[in-house]
Specification:
By secondary structure, the protein is of the alpha+beta class. Among the domains are: about 180 residues, Growth Hormone, Chain: A; about 60 residues, no CATH class; about 240 residues, Growth Hormone, Chain: A, CATH 1.20.1250. The protein is about 60% helix and about 5% strand. A seven-stranded antiparallel beta sheet has the order 2-3-1-7-6-5-4. A hairpin with a 6-residue loop joins strand 2 and strand 3. The longest helix has about 55 residues.
Length: about 775
């Protein structure tokens, strides 16, 4: 995982520059006021600080849709250029107007970095350490602030500190960031797949994962482009063909049409997935029903997505642990391709492999009755499908394939292995204990014609096996053992209607160049209508609300109050006794406050993929509430100065440490995880716009609130918002640790569908 870690560190430098900029303007504004005589113009002074926020808000409005069109990497390059240009203009700045322009340009760079760095890291990081890597922007931002405060403090010790140099030095690290984005950072493989650029995506994934075998993840990225509106939960028993059907129950209830044959990398090795009819999955399928029918009022109000994801986490003790391997599957340790890869024609170009996203829900992959008869008699015993991916390189020529003799009664996988010299695709583990598979489904339509289609399955083990199985990942390697698994089943995006079973077809692309052109045209602009899909709408509500609640949770008010608290604690007197000027002491205090955050962020990085995002929020928000309550008491109840200083200082320190562990980084992490690839940039832009508007609203409302209700009233309001945030997180925010991004949105789709089905029943 070294490649993914280094890429995340390089991308997070954009947030380091944001923290650097925040600290430098806080220190430089002291000297800017003196040079331009702004002591009597507080509006201009406030505008100097706020212009950067305004620029970030403006650019955020466009950043997401543009990133969906041109890619993530070009936008990060643009961010570094804007940082560099803003630093140079601030270094020059002969007047207030030029300085305001420089701050606006700098704000553009800040907005791009804050919006797109979490998205970029989420799309390149493996699921097992995605939370850790996505906490890096919080850490680098705080480190940038601390380093900048140290630099400014050193400069204030001189006789004539230059505010232009304080601000302009930002251009130096910006150059380093520009070099990294241009020369080192790759494009997001998920974005490349969404544009049909499979060859580039595969090469980048191999670099990021440090291995040649990225077949499963490549297939996952393509399948993740589907809408998922038809996703359902099914339960299966998996194991050798002799054991799975018997384990599922009465054979009369499980005909061959319910079976899915899975072939392993060894010739002749196969498993059978037998669907359990008449029952929903023992964990996933029943989770929503249980939440709606029993339990406390809060349990009944809990979002089905929260219940579903929690039920999976209860059954995946190893997932989400940093360092866990994402290569294989915990379900199928020896399982290779579910579907063999037919030989490619001489002009096959893996670049021309666009996902099958131009099919309507009712226009699935159909076979006529005659075709189905040719396809192994309609039963799923011979799942030889042509695969539209870049996972396997087949070197056999048509001539060799045509002359290969096939033994009587040999399976399609055996025939294919004979054709290709025994070469098969690799395992389809997609991380977090999930396995990607496909199945063939058939049904008889109203016209009496039997039709079939390919369904994509995200499989996850659901507890121990029975009848001799021990339930662990090695159980399938011994005859007669099996496991239960839940599957998220939806229409496949990887296969078209021309794919046949039991034959040796060529890639199902009638006109690849035209198909690629159609896909590029379809993806050339933002898909606003997809925001209305139930799953996307549900995820967007969660992302927007968590951003609003974060901004009004009190961090700006506590930062505003910190210098006063530390002054009451005697820190200013102590620093003055050391011979420091008032300006130097103020900057040093701010630097020490920032330093307190770094160990807490480091702890959060370790816990993000162990305890999880939701758990950290549920543990840290109550501490935020308690800290604010102590600050309220300290400002309302008469007490000795020393006691007041101790209580206030301790509360501020605890508040900062808990905020940067939970409510600081997690909203951005969640927003980068819960949206589908095709509209991720657009959705993250909406959430980031909410963030910046909330930041502006809180910043400008704080002085008004202080005058109207006093400091204790302000803290009381923030404590109330934190209480609302705690309730919202408990009811609406799911746990996403260890899940592939494409699986997370499927749960939002299922949750939206489940609730829509329950509402008519409740009425």
């Amino acid at each position: 995982m070294q490649g993914a870690v280094l890429v995340a560190i390089a991308a997070a430098i954009g947030n380091l520059l944001q923290g650097w900029d925040n600290a430098t303007i806080a220190g430089a504004v002291i000297y800017i006021k003196r040079e331009f005589h702004l002591e009597t113009q507080p509006a201009v002074e406030g505008l100097l600080v706020a212009t950067s926020l305004i620029g970030a808000t403006i650019i955020t409005t466009f950043s997401g849709p543009v990133a969906d069109i041109v890619g993530r990497r070009p936008m990060l390059i643009a961010s570094s250029l804007l940082y560099f240009a803003g630093g140079l203009i601030m270094l020059w700045s002969p007047s207030v107007l030029v300085l305001l322009l420089a701050r606006l340009v700098d704000g553009f760079g800040v907005g791009l970095a804050v919006t797109l760095v979490p998205v970029y890291i989420s799309e390149t990081a493996p699921p097992e350490i995605r939370g850790l890597l996505n906490t890096l922007p919080q850490f680098t931002g705080s480190f940038g602030m601390f380093f900048s405060y140290c630099m400014i403090f050193y400069m204030t010790l001189g006789d004539h500190p230059s505010w232009r140099f304080m601000l302009g030095v930002l251009s130096v690290p910006s150059l380093a960031y520009l070099a990294l984005t241009v020369l080192y950072l790759p494009e997001s493989p998920r974005w490349l797949v969404s544009k049909g650029r499979m060859r580039e995506a595969r090469a980048i994934l191999q670099m990021l994962r440090g291995r040649e075998d990225v077949s499963g993840e490549m297939a996952l990225l393509v399948e993740g482009l589907g809408s998922g509106g038809d996703t359902v939960i099914e339960e299966y028993v998996l194991g050798p063909a002799t054991g799975a059907a018997a384990a599922a129950g009465d054979e009369s209830e499980h005909d061959t049409r319910d079976q899915v044959t899975l072939y392993g990398p060894e010739q002749g090795l196969s498993w059978v997935a037998q669907q359990v009819q008449g029952a929903r999955s023992s964990v996933l399928g029943s989770a929503v029903e249980l939440a709606s029918r029993q339990g406390s009022m809060y349990e009944q109000m809990k979002d089905p997505v929260v219940t579903l994801l929690a039920s999976v986490h209860d059954k995946m003790p190893e997932s989400g642990v940093p360092g866990a391997s994402a290569r294989g599957s915990t379900l199928f340790p020896n399982l290779g391709s579910m579907l063999s890869v037919a030989e490619r024609p001489g002009d096959w170009d893996e670049e021309n492999v666009p996902p099958n996203d131009d099919l309507d829900d009712d226009d699935e992959e159909y076979l006529s009755d005659d075709d189905a008869g040719a396809a192994a008699g309609g039963a799923l015993h011979a799942p030889l499908l042509s695969r539209q991916s870049t996972d396997v390189d087949t070197t056999s020529s048509k001539k060799d394939a045509g002359s290969t003799s096939q033994p009587p009664g040999s399976s399609p996988m055996q025939r294919y292995s004979s054709m290709t010299g025994g070469e098969t695709a690799s395992t389809m583990g997609i991380g977090g204990g999930w396995q990607l598979a496909w199945k063939w489904t058939e049904n008889v339509g109203p016209d009496g014609v039997r039709r079939g289609g390919v369904k994509r399955m995200y499989l996850h083990e659901e507890g121990g096996g029975a009848g001799g199985g021990d339930g662990d990942s090695s159980g399938l390697s011994r005859a007669g053992e099996y496991v239960h698994a839940a599957a998220l089943v939806s229409r496949s995006m990887l296969y078209t209607k021309d794919v046949l079973i039991g034959q040796s077809p060529t890639p199902a692309l009638d006109n690849p160049p035209e198909t690629v052109a159609n896909r590029a045209a379809a993806a050339s602009g933002p898909r606003w209508h997809e925001l209305l899909e139930p799953g996307v709408r549900r995820a967007l509500f969660c992302g927007v609300m968590i951003q609003i609640l974060q901004q009004f949770s009190g961090i700006n008010g506590v930062l505003y109050y910190t210098p006063q608290i530390l002054d009451q604690a005697g820190v200013s007197v102590l620093l003055a006794s050391l011979g420091l000027s008032a300006d130097s002491a103020s900057i040093l205090i701010s630097g020490l406050t920032t330093l307190l955050m770094l160990p807490s962020i480091g702890l959060a990085m370790r816990l993000m993929d162990v305890s999880g995002r939701r758990s950290l929020l549920l543990w840290t928000i109550p501490v935020l509430i308690a800290s604010l309550v102590v600050l309220i008491v300290a400002n309302l109840v008469p007490m000795a100065t020393t006691v007041h200083a101790v209580l206030s200082t301790a509360s501020v320190i605890v508040y900062f440490c808990c905020f940067v562990m939970g409510f600081g980084p997690i909203p951005n992490i969640l927003c980068a995880e819960i949206f589908p690839t095709r509209v991720r940039g657009l959705c993250i832009a909406i959430c980031s716009l909410t963030f910046w508007l909330g930041d502006i609203a809180v910043t400008y409302s704080l002085p008004v609130m202080l005058k109207a209700i006093g400091l204790a009233g302000v803290f009381g309001f923030y404590a109330f918002v934190c209480c609302l945030a705690l309730i919202f997180v408990y009811l609406k925010v799911p746990e996403t640790k260890g899940f592939p991004l494409e699986v997370i949105i499927e749960f939002f789709n299922i949750g939206a569908k489940s609730q829509s089905e329950q509402e008519p029943q409740a009425q």
